[in-house]
User: Which sequence fits this backbone?
């Protein structure tokens, strides 16, 4: 088996093969999900005009892409700057994942040197506990920073939740998208790892432009015509076909602070499950911060959801990284 060559990302021509590698790698990493084409493309969209890119690489062996790595960074509400990396590799290429991480860490260290000292700086990546990837990440000095649960519920025995007095549920309109987005952005400001970058107007445009976007699956709660809660749902048909399942996704359930603890979130969740079931889905999936300050985990458990997988955000301080890492960067 030839030793893979790590080279710069070459744009559109790489994406199809890279997604195939990513799908295989994510399942091997214990992440029971694959990317839809739009979501995968959106990860690399900012790099498309930089050929070859310095912030993504592909690993090639025998003229075939067998791995890749991507880096990015963001500031979070806790006052930290996070330098994140994500990699994928076909399992038969032993040692390739470590080489890709070498490149990612070296490149992020190089980038951080040009950034102002605005607070603590951490390297960050995500794993599933107990997997090979998790062992590799921990061996490199990363430690768990936060746990997140994937939760599933069969879409049977569904009951409508009574709405609080004065609250109505409706589908968001095109004209109401920005208001619903603004309410969601504000509601999530007290969540761990909140980053304004993830709630920008540009991010909304990405969501609306995705093939997964379905306006009829975005519900809002109204009080006197004002949006006070929101939930976005979607169906990943490509993933369902590949993994032979009928799963719907419930995303970004939120309620404005003055309206919390009144049953609005439970009503939005119930509405979402009933609509997904009406569209032929057999189960619903959502993700939750294990230490969410809003009590979301209790709400989901009380609504019949059970933990099906655990994801962990792993971090290590960027300061003190050995200068020798620079020598491991592959361009």
Assistant:
């Amino acid at each position: 088996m030839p030793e893979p060559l790590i080279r710069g990302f070459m744009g559109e021509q790489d994406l199809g093969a890279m997604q195939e590698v990513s799908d295989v790698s994510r399942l091997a990493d214990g992440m029971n999900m694959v990317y839809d084409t739009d979501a995968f493309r959106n990860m690399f969209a900012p790099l498309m005009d930089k050929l070859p890119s310095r912030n993504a690489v592909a690993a090639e062996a025998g003229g075939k892409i067998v791995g890749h790595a991507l880096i990015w960074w963001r500031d979070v509400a806790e006052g930290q700057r996070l330098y994140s990396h994500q990699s994928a590799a076909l399992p038969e290429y032993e040692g390739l994942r470590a080489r890709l991480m070498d490149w990612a860490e070296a490149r992020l260290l190089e980038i951080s040197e040009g950034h102002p000292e605005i607070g603590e700086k951490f390297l960050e990546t995500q794993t599933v506990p107990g997997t090979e990837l998790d062992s590799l990440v921990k061996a490199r000095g990363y430690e768990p920073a936060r746990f997140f649960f994937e939760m599933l519920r069969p879409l049977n025995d569904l009951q409508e939740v009574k709405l609080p007095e004065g609250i109505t549920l409706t589908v968001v309109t095109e004209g109401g998208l920005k208001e619903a987005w603004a309410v969601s952005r504000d509601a999530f400001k007290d969540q761990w790892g909140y980053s304004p970058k993830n709630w920008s107007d540009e991010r909304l445009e990405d969501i609306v432009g995705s093939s997964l976007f379905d306006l009829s699956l975005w519900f809002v709660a109204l009080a006197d015509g004002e949006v006070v809660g929101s939930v976005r749902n979607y169906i990943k048909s490509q993933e369902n076909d590949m993994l032979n399942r009928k799963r719907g996704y419930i995303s970004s359930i939120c309620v404005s602070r003055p309206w919390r603890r009144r049953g609005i979130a439970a009503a939005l969740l119930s509405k979402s499950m009933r609509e997904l079931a009406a569209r032929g889905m057999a189960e619903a999936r959502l993700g939750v911060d294990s230490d969410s300050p809003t009590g979301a985990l209790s709400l989901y458990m009380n609504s019949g959801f059970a933990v099906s997988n655990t994801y962990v955000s792993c971090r290590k301080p960027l300061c003190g990284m050995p200068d020798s890492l620079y020598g491991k960067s592959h361009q």
